[in-house]
Design brief:
With 139 residues, this protein is α+β, with helices and mostly antiparallel strands. It contains four helices and six strands. It has a three-stranded antiparallel beta sheet with strand order 1-3-2. Helix 1 packs across helix 2. The longest helix has 14 residues. The termini are far apart. The mean pLDDT is 88. The structure holds zinc ion (3 copies). The site of one zinc ion has 6 residues, from loops.
């Protein structure tokens, strides 16, 4: 059992269940964004689908995970940067890069994006920056 996963749950005042710990561990081990199907596959026999669904929802509400929308509208999930996200505010002004060769999607936290000014009367709730291309490993 990883202490880091437990620390995260403690920080966010979430009860430590095996399902939650396993899901956080999967994300910490993975450098790429993961779809619900992949998470389900990794947790076969440990967690049922409903638990995974509920846990992902909780983690998004708490600011532990954020959604990444792929070009095929497939929803994936990635860890939030805890310096930027909380239960009251998600801040994802970072780019997601999707490799069209291996299909992996990753967060690029270090790329600077200039915030866009929306016209009057519009409020942004969620922003998705997606770059398609070929990743380092596939190039
Ligand atoms: Zn977030
Ligand atoms: Zn690739
Ligand atoms: Zn991201």
């Amino acid at each position: 059992m990883s202490t880091e996963a437990i620390d995260i749950l403690n920080d966010y005042k979430l009860r430590r269940t095996n399902g939650r710990i396993s899901i956080i561990n999967i994300f910490m081990d993975s450098k790429i964004a993961l779809s619900e199907n992949i998470i389900e596959e990794k947790l076969t026999g440990l967690c049922d689908r409903a638990t995974i669904y509920r846990t992902l929802k909780t983690f998004i509400e708490k600011g532990i995970l954020h959604r990444v929308i792929d070009e095929n509208s497939i929803v994936k999930y990635a860890m939030c940067n805890t310096d930027h996200c909380s239960s009251t505010h998600h801040s994802h002004d970072h780019v997601h890069f999707k490799c069209q060769v291996c299909g992996n999607t990753e967060c690029m936290d270090d790329l600077q994006i200039t915030p866009m000014q929306l016209p009057n009367g519009y409020t942004a709730k969620e922003t998705n920056y997606l770059i398609l291309g070929t990743c380092k490993n596939c190039n």
